[in-house]
Amino acid sequence: MSKSTITKKKAYGHILIISILSLMLIVTTYALVLSLVSVDGNLFETGRIEIELNGGKTVFDGSDINLAPGISTEKSFTIQNTGTADVYYRIYLENVAGPLQEVLEFKIYDNDKLLYSGAAKDLNKNTPCIGDRSLEVGQTHTLKAVVTMSEQADNNYQLQEITFDITADAIQVKNNPQKVFE
């Protein structure tokens, strides 16, 4: 037998051994991944959580609000589920600034049901307004915000202002009966 034939046989043998070892490594890795990811009896679905607040339009732009002690203003706005999973939602104020945060009370209603009542300074991520019913895929809820200046507000609040951003967050309904947002 020639030297080149022996070398070719050895090369084919090495290639065969490397192929078998590679296949064994792939099968072992696949089995390991399945044992770590799969839990009997638990099925997880993926989806996209996405909501839209008031069609992207500003709820309070400040141009039509002129409050005095005991006077209210009312604004309706929408929250729509544009994702692929049913969600719970919460609404709160961010970037609140200005002295009126102390004397403005926010009440948020879903139809006639009061969801939240409290001072502007307290309507934050830690104490948000949480919807009492889920928002199904494609569904829109119309909410109402009533903002009232405290009757106890004195002249110190004349010509004062408040600025804030209204924020809405959502979490999936599935596997979350306590509406845990974090």
Secondary structure blueprint with pairings:
Elements: H1 3-37, E1 51-53, E2 72-81, E3 87-97, E4 104-110, E5 113-119, E6 129-130, E7 140-149, E8 163-172
Antiparallel strand pairs: 1-2, 2-7, 3-6, 3-8, 4-5, 4-7
Question: TL;DR of this structure?
Answer:
By secondary structure, this protein is α+β, with helices and mostly antiparallel strands. It has 2 domains: 1-43; 51-172, Immunoglobulin-like (Sandwich), CATH 2.60.40. The protein is built from 1 helix and 8 strands, in the order αββββββββ.
Form type: rod-shaped
Q: Indicate the structural class.
A: alpha+beta
Strand order in space, largest sheet:
1-2-7-4-5
Number of helical segments with 4 or more residues = 1
Termini separation (Å)? Answer: 73 Å
Q: Which spans of ≥5 residues are poorly predicted at pLDDT below 50?
A: none
Helix content, binned percent: 10-25%
Encode the helix/strand succession as letters: HEEEEEEEE
Q: What is the number of independent domains?
A: 2
* CATH architecture assignment name of the largest domain: Sandwich
Task: Report the strand count.
Answer: 8
